[in-house]
Write a structure and sequence with these properties.
The chain is of the alpha+beta class and 359 residues long. The protein has two domains: 253 residues, CorA soluble domain-like (Beta Polymerase, domain 2), CATH 3.30.460.20; 56 residues, Up-down Bundle (Methane Monooxygenase Hydroxylase, Chain G, domain 1). The protein contains eight helices and seven strands; from the N terminus they run βββααββββαααααα. A seven-stranded mixed sheet has the order 2-1-3-7-6-5-4. Strand 4 and strand 5 form a beta hairpin. Helix 4 packs parallel to helix 7 and helix 6 packs antiparallel against helix 7. The radius of gyration is 34 Å and the shape is rod-shaped. The relative contact order is 0.08.
Length: 359
């Protein structure tokens, strides 16, 4: 099978579980990425915060104080056994764990009664500069949050806020911690959007100052990035709207107030993305118009040259027949008169083109 290129509008789509797998299966199958991962536990309340590395999933079943909020952060590509034991420890639904393994999920919120499963995506750049979106999987329960992300250190800002008592996270429950994570992920879209705006301005300036054939591919890349962001942000709005509903007991009214800010940021992103997509389409049309105008200029120049030489070719062809009884052939002034006539006709055509504004 020919591998799907990650360049262009359509990114490669991959599913980890095989065809016909049982519902809730978390077997990854053949995966070239190392299965190493890092699991940490941060417990906190208003008075203190502690962080520790979980070496074995069995440690999750240890007795812990109930007056704290617990954040279990799994970073890296976890093996199936680790995910299975993690699901057993927190009684996570197997269908949700299956969605954790298949990291192509769209943003969504699923209510399993005693816990919520949230999928949100964050934009990032690969080593070659291609834009991708990374999946964050959140399990929100009564007093705990489990975050699973195949990358590393993406949530360090939230971690520092907890350990250094910055902000309000330590004063509230697990739902507010989930909000802080969602807010951080959404904020990562704004630098990406600003960068795309700078790229569009640079393209516009180059097209204004002259034709540049390389801008066609640049516009195509920007359009592909905007399409990727659009496919991510639209379902993200729906997911946050689900969390804001009153029928979700794991989310407090106070946290819903903050989630409205996330929802507002998502609407802003959607507006800017749609504006940039229209601008990108306008730049592409302008670029195509420049190509068409350039082609028309070339054709106009060639047409004028052909028109200019048409009567000259007629004169040269007429007197090139070399009939013996052509009276002009015996004249001493035939050659200079013919050349003078050609020059006069050519100059007249040039003057006429000039008067018309064609040259």
């Amino acid at each position: 099978m020919t591998p799907v290129s990650k360049h262009g509008v359509y990114r490669g789509f991959r599913r980890s579980t095989g065809i016909g797998a049982l519902p809730g299966s978390i077997e990854r199958g053949a995966d070239p990425i190392s299965a190493k991962c890092r699991l940490t536990r941060i417990s906190y309340n208003a008075a203190l915060a502690e962080e520790e590395v979980i070496d074995t999933v069995a440690e999750l079943n240890e007795d812990v104080p109930e007056d704290r909020v617990y954040w279990f952060r799994l970073e890296g590509v976890a093996d199936s056994e680790t995910l299975r034991r993690l699901g057993e420890a927190f009684e996570l639904h197997p269908l949700a764990l299956e969605d954790v393994v298949n990291t192509h999920q769209r943003c969504k919120v699923e209510d399993y009664g005693d816990h919520l499963f949230v999928v949100i995506r964050m934009p990032a750049h690969e080593a070659n500069g291609d834009m991708i979106t990374e999946q964050f999987s959140l399990f929100i329960g009564d007093g705990f949050v489990v975050s699973i992300h195949e990358g590393c250190n993406a949530l360090e800002v939230v971690r520092e806020r907890i350990l250094t008592a910055r902000g309000r996270i330590r004063e509230y429950g697990a739902d507010y911690l989930a909000y802080a994570i969602l807010d951080l992920v959404i904020d990562n879209y704004f630098p990406i959007i600003e960068e795309i705006g700078d790229r569009l301005n640079a393209i516009d300036e180059k097209l204004e100052f002259g034709f540049d054939p390389g801008q066609r591919l640049t516009i195509r890349d920007v359009r592909a990035d905007l399409l990727l962001l659009r496919r991510t942000v639209w379902p993200q709005r729906e997911a946050i709207a689900v969390l804001m509903r009153d029928d979700c007991p794991l989310i407090s009214d106070m946290t819903r107030t903050y989630l409205r800010d996330c929802y507002d940021h998502t609407i802003q992103l959607m507006d800017v993305i749609e504006t940039y997509r229209e601008l990108c389409a306008d730049l592409r049309d302008f670029h195509l118009a420049e190509i068409s105008l350039r082609s028309n200029e070339v054709m106009k120049t060639l047409t004028m040259i052909a028109t200019l030489f048409m009567p000259l070719s007629f004169i040269a062809g007429f007197y090139g027949m070399n009939f013996h009884y052509m009276p002009e052939l015996g004249s001493h002034y035939a050659y200079p008169l013919t050349v003078a006539a050609m020059i006069t006709i050519g100059s007249s055509f040039l003057f006429w083109f000039r008067r018309k504004g064609w040259i």
